[in-house]
């Protein structure tokens, strides 16, 4: 990684981290992150998002949480991509533990999607509710109707 023709900066490292992660090389992604930080190259929002998503998908919740903490300590505000990784992980964790996913659980996600103008995804969650045997309640429908009215759909 010390080739004189390649600029070692946050973009280079983030691209490499993203690439090795797509190849399923989580440990190499973490090693590159550590190398980047040790060289004084500060990670950016995208760098953190790649690693947070990687760790959650690998079931390494503690490492993902550490990334979120490091991110916020560095005054980097999580964005929608970060939040989606967190929401997906919580939902997957609930399912894997056999927790009861009820209308309220879905309503939290539906509300979040609608607030961020992602009405199509909220609508898909209502369909998923039905597929999972969870009956959508008035909160789910009211949230969707409000979003349709607000965002002109």
TrEMBL record:
It comes from the Eukaryota. PPR repeats lie at residues 9-43, 44-78, 102-136. The keyword Repeat applies. It holds the Pfam family PPR_2. Keywords: Repeat. NCBIfam families: PPR. Belongs to the PPR family. P subfamily. This is Pentatricopeptide repeat-containing protein. It comes from Pyrus ussuriensis x Pyrus communis.
